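Entry, Tuesday afternoon. Goal for today is a structural model of the target with adenosine-5'-diphosphate bound, before we commit to ordering more compound. Inputs were pasted exactly as handed over by J.K., no edits. I checked the ligand SMILES twice against the vendor sheet because last time a stereocentre got dropped in transcription.
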Amino acid sequence: MSNIVLENLTKQYGDAAAIEGVSFSAPAGSFTVLLGPSGCGKSTTLRMIAGLDTPTSGRILIGDRDVTHLPPSQRRISMVFQSYALFPHLTVAENILFGLKVRKEPAADFPRRLDRVAKLLGLTALLDRKPSQLSGGQQQRVALGRAVISEAPVCLMDEPLSNLDAQLRHEMRREIRALQQSLGITMVYVTHDQTEAMSMADQVVLLRQGRIEQRDTPDGLYARPATEFAARFIGTPPMNLIDLAGENGGLGIAGLHGITIASAPEQAKRLGVRPEHIRVSDQGYPAVVESVEYFGADSIVVCRIGSCSGIAVRAPGHLRADAGDMLTVAWRPEDQHFFAADAAAISVPGRSGAESLSPESLLS
Ligand SMILES: Nc1ncnc2c1ncn2[C@@H]1O[C@H](COP(=O)(O)OP(=O)(O)O)[C@@H](O)[C@H]1O
Ligand SMILES: [Mg+2]
């Protein structure tokens, strides 16, 4: 098994840094997701772990071996990319075995290895077909098979599911996670999709403009976002950020008079509350409905509180209300997040703050 360590990795393209000072470790057998918006440096980071690109500075260790200047073939990794490009003229079996043949691995082992991978991925009945005779999901499985058959202890995936429709993506997400766990692979997986990150990862490395914004477990990222950016990146709809203003010697919601927020730290500039933590209630803050969207299991009610509009509330079932209607909404003090002028979270006594994430804790 192979752990991965990135030490202060920087990649410059001309004057611009694609990534800067990126450090994290991924314990052997763990699933790490590199998450962030387009252009934040996810693929650059992954390509350097793979050896397809050389860092401008910093080190990469795989299995405690410094691989920074080794070619991909000597890193004991497998890779799956968004454009998985199967060879159209080769059968499924030939596609899966292609890499082994190129690397001149012992042919006597091929039937055993192919059989195992085909069973793992449910491809046994399809081995003689050509890619054009497969569905999108089956093609994606062949691409996974190509990676899995290498039996490399580390697997790197760059947005492998983005070409699939939503239903299939959901299925493949579960399959990849199950495969990674059953084979004990150390996985680094790139996506811009926060639901993929939340549902698959042991740890999430959230990148923003080439730097790590927060590295945490999915639970930690959701419950204790370190910044407003992290708070807004996780969750649909994202966390509401509500402007605060001085009120009766304390702090209240901007434009709303007569209610102070007892637990607000004095340096707080914004209050964060997730839509699912706001409930329609008899007591609380007066809110004016701006719009209602109904989704079956729940409704998203967008409203204005004080001078802050666009506040999303996730209400169970079909909440029947019209624009302009008045509601009263409330939330628990423990669901409040406070942010300072620099957009960093202010740790609140009584709630565990941004404690450092130890690699060992990820796999317990
Ligand atoms: N070969 C390259 N030459 C110049 N700039 C690049 C190159 N590759 C990536 N970049 C830049 O580096 C930044 C990060 O890119 P990338 O890692 O591909 O982002 P992501 O995968 O998160 O969308 C972007 O600003 C991109 O334009
Ligand atoms: Mg990319």
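The chain has a mean pLDDT of 92.
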